[in-house]
Design a protein that fits this description.
Strand order of the largest sheet: 1-2-3-4-7-5-6
CATH architecture: 2-Layer Sandwich
Distance between the termini: 68 Å
Strand content: 25-35%
Shape: globular
Number of domains: 1
Structural class: alpha+beta
CATH class: Alpha Beta
Oligomer: single chain
Length: 201
């Protein structure tokens, strides 16, 4: 007969406590509302300046999705503006990751990377004053900046960044925001999107 795994006293206490799950549902609804407001705040820039960069992006709305298990923790994602296909990506992604941070992620892959590679190559000086992480992995859906495949732009340096842009099959830049700074999410995201629009124009 298999031995029945035991619960620790703290786990028994959690089994009897509905407070956290009730609070989590409320927090999730509030976070989704924040992302809806963020989307509306980014919309004027997307419909004017981003549209000039990529006319194929003709959507006036983004996509909000959520899940429970990115490395064991809940998350919420706003993809806006964004174009995804099997081989090509042109996206600005905002992520909430429970217990960690908010992040903005700018991803170029395939035809969009080829289109803008030369302008990205000259972007170091416009990005160097921000705390930007560079994804060196082979997976554009890795969002954990504590992972060994992420380095800061300042650590990579200008020559390293230019080599990165030249050789990669996808480029991903990531900015993080502490969860306690949630009130600045719109300003933070608007600044980062505007930075990328200016670089690519």
């Amino acid at each position: 007969m298999m031995e029945i795994p035991e619960f620790a006293p703290q786990e028994i206490s959690l089994l009897n406590d509905t407070t956290f799950l009730t609070a989590k549902r409320k927090i999730t609804r509030t976070l989704i509302l924040h992302f809806e407001i963020l989307e509306k705040s980014l919309q004027p820039m997307v419909l004017s300046e981003w549209q000039n960069l990529e006319p194929a992006h003709n959507k006036s709305s983004g996509k909000i999705s959520k899940g429970e298990n990115y490395k064991g923790l809940p998350y919420i994602v706003l993809d806006y503006p964004a174009i995804f296909s099997r081989t090509d990506i042109f996206a600005f992604r905002t992520l909430f990751w429970w217990g960690n941070y908010y992040s903005n992620q700018f991803i170029l892959m395939g035809a969009y990377l080829e289109k803008f590679r030369e302008k990205l190559d000259r972007a170091y000086n416009r990005l160097k004053d921000d705390e930007v992480y560079i994804d060196l992995s082979s997976n554009p859906w890795n969002h954990d900046v504590s992972d060994q495949h992420f380095v800061t732009l300042s650590r990579l340096g200008q020559a390293g960044f230019q080599q990165y842009v030249k050789e990669r099959t996808f480029v991903k830049l990531v900015w993080t925001l502490d969860l306690s700074s949630w009130k600045t999410l719109i300003q933070f995201s608007s600044h980062n999107l505007k930075t990328m629009v200016n670089i690519l124009n």
